[in-house]
């Protein structure tokens, strides 16, 4: 993502400005709990109860590290991930990565839109397809016609939709001592179904589109503030901005993992306890909750699906557009008018429209989502390796290359994802 940045003559961001600057990390973390992610977490809780909660504790530090690294690459270099890959690595590697990202994101958009339409139908009745089309159109209008400075405020408010899943917990009886015990001292059942679920949880939590989105949003924030510059060219702005990125990302990923924890907890305490262990979609989880936890829990769960979907759609479509624009040197910014970045906005529109169309085909959305997770898993490992290399590359990061614990945990996250993907293929071969 090109910025045309010149060396600064202004001081860095004041250290007390981070509260006003929260955004890329919080929005990225919240977008991770999209309807597809809700379905995955619901499946995990329904199938294995409290014994799967420990995975959320493990994913948090790994997710924080890799997202801080992606944010730093964007903020230090003033460019998104795709532009940095194009400038410093083989172009064939970039094109393969971008194609896989676009494919996985489009399938994910299809699954999310389908879940959102079904959730509205559950609450209000009526034509599911009309709701799905309306939600897709509403999301596109926001992305294309609302400038970034205003649009990002909408995304921040949409993160509040995730509190619906915190609210659900207080409508059902939770054996908190059992939850604490099984979270910290789990008793996993190491069979293929359990391992597959662990892989699914990791795959839905650490996803390539989140890397591209957060790095690009740091660049958007940079362009939106006249006094700010890429840290590589404005090292005096480094300490305040790196601190802000750390706080923002820790809060955002903490928020993401907390909501995932509550979704698993809710379905474990209700569905699993009542021997409902086969949940395929987020809307099915909402329906199953109604006779067990009551109307209020059902409404919270259903409306949360719609709110999180509206948050996730622009992240999925936008991250694909940023990747394509970076790969092919297109103008790209949500702050630009559509006529000034036609190809960038075309990718957003096409990804959403094709995703919408896929939802109206005979393609099984569950199988499509499964293969989206496979593609995400396959794509994430080489991208994470590239990110770790970029984060230490002097031409990209200048004096701000990562080191110490961030570097160690970043490589650990990469290794864990590599093991998860390998396990996924082993399980596929077995079955």
TrEMBL record:
Record-annotated membrane-spanning stretches: 47-70, 91-110, 130-148, 155-174, 194-213, 251-272, 292-323, 344-363, 369-387, 408-430
Subcellular location: Membrane
Highest taxon of source: Bacteria
Membrane-topology annotation of the record: Multi-pass membrane protein
Keyword field: Membrane, Symport, Transmembrane, Transmembrane helix, Transport
InterPro entries: NRAMP_fam
The keyword Ribonucleoprotein belongs to this UniProt entry's keyword annotation: no
Keyword rRNA-binding: no
Name the UniProt record assigns to this protein: Divalent metal cation transporter
